[in-house]
Design goal:
The chain has a 5-stranded mixed sheet with strand order 4-3-5-12-6, with helices on both faces. The chain has a 3-stranded antiparallel sheet with strand order 10-7-11. Strands 1-2 form a two-stranded antiparallel sheet. It contains 12 helices and 12 strands. The protein is elongated. The protein folds into 3 domains: about 80 residues, Winged helix-like DNA-binding domain superfamily/Winged helix DNA-binding domain (Arc Repressor Mutant, subunit A); about 100 residues, 3-Layer(aba) Sandwich (D-Maltodextrin-Binding Protein, domain 2), CATH 3.40.190.10; about 120 residues, Periplasmic binding protein-like II (D-Maltodextrin-Binding Protein, domain 2, 3-Layer(aba) Sandwich). The longest helix is centred in the N-terminal third of the chain and has 26 residues. It has about 325 residues and is an alpha/beta fold.
Length: about 325
């Protein structure tokens, strides 16, 4: 009979392709993990992994069995969730993931609201790119994720839109567009933008914010984070689009840049996603309400409201 610990061992080995790291991930000795996998192979009567002195290679069947084992373990986790959810007070651990262009600006304001609503809940935060967050949900590594749409979602997850997040134009003081309070598609037509490096969904979302403007990417530079992107603009290296959420949360504080509204831009939609098989959909929707409330509060402390735009940046700039 299959044992859950054997499935854990197999999934860990498939993920790491290394017995030592797989054993560490499972919190067992390497010999214990190796013995457990041998028992699994003997019980199934098939070879799941090819072992050499220096490497591990999963057989084609091993890859398929590991994928199904991961799904089984995720469903077992959901059964445990169902039992714990009967308490109805949110007790337990919540593993929440966010994308880097939302998390730093939203979660610091959302966590106090979540803790107030669910005092028995422990929140574990993880910041990853969208593809990794979705993989974490499907594999059961995460319970919830905050990401931006549009994005292709796996069939196993449910998405609940929290709010729309528009953009503002950020450019150097000496740029020809620096004197605009509001920019249009015509102002941006054919412009090349400084953007985050590939893998960040904001890169694609920013380029599609004005479909008719034929925006392009300045491929000579790519930032790893929004603060780096703002610093590049401040140094006169180009212009970019920043999400309203980041600007309202004070991402431009201390930077001498020009800011213009983009009222006609197509916004991204920030959403909360979780597995459809989870029994905690009602609880997660309540957490979504906390996140919406946090978004409404963003900017109140800094004064960088949606209408503050250029004035807020000039006040915050040094000198």
């Amino acid at each position: 009979m299959l044992k859950t610990r054997q499935l854990h061992y197999l999934v860990a080995l498939a993920d790491t392709l290394n017995f030592s790291r797989a054993a560490e991930a499972c919190h067992v000795t390497q010999s214990t993990l190796s013995s457990g996998l041998k028992e699994l192979e003997q019980g199934l009567g098939v070879q799941l992994a090819e072992r050499t002195p220096h490497s591990v290679l999963m057989t084609p069947l091993g890859v398929e069995v590991a994928a199904r084992a991961r799904d089984v373990l995720t469903r077992l986790h959901d059964i445990e969730e169902l039992a714990r959810s009967q308490a109805g007070d949110g007790a337990g651990l919540l593993r929440l993931g966010t994308i880097p262009t939302v998390g730093p600006f939203l979660t610091p304001r959302a966590l106090p609201l979540i803790r107030q609503a669910f005092p028995k809940m422990k929140v574990f935060l993880r910041e990853e790119l969208t593809a990794d967050l979705l993989a974490g949900l499907v594999e059961g590594r995460l319970d919830l994720a905050v990401l931006a749409l549009p994005h292709d979602l796996p069939p196993q997850v449910h998405a609940e839109v929290l709010f729309e997040d528009g953009y503002r134009l950020v450019c150097p003081r000496q740029h020809p567009l620096a004197n605009l309070r509001s920019a249009t598609a015509g102002d941006l037509h054919g412009r090349r933008l400084l953007l985050l490096e590939r893998g960040h969904c904001l890169q694609r979302h920013a380029l599609s914010s004005f479909p008719q403007a034929q925006l392009g990417e300045d491929e000579s530079l790519a930032a790893t984070s929004l603060p780096t992107l703002v610093a590049m603009v401040e140094e006169g290296l180009g212009l970019t689009l920043l999400p309203d959420l980041a600007v309202d949360a004070g991402a431009l504080k201390g930077h001498d840049v020009a800011l213009a509204a983009l009222p006609d831009a197509c916004p991204r939609r920030v959403a909360l996603v979780w597995r459809k098989s989870s029994s905690k959909g009602a609880l997660y929707s309540r957490i979504g309400a906390c996140l919406r409330q946090a978004r409404a509060r963003v900017g109140e402390a800094t004064g960088a409201g949606r209408e503050g735009g250029r004035e807020a940046v000039e006040t915050a700039a040094p000198g």
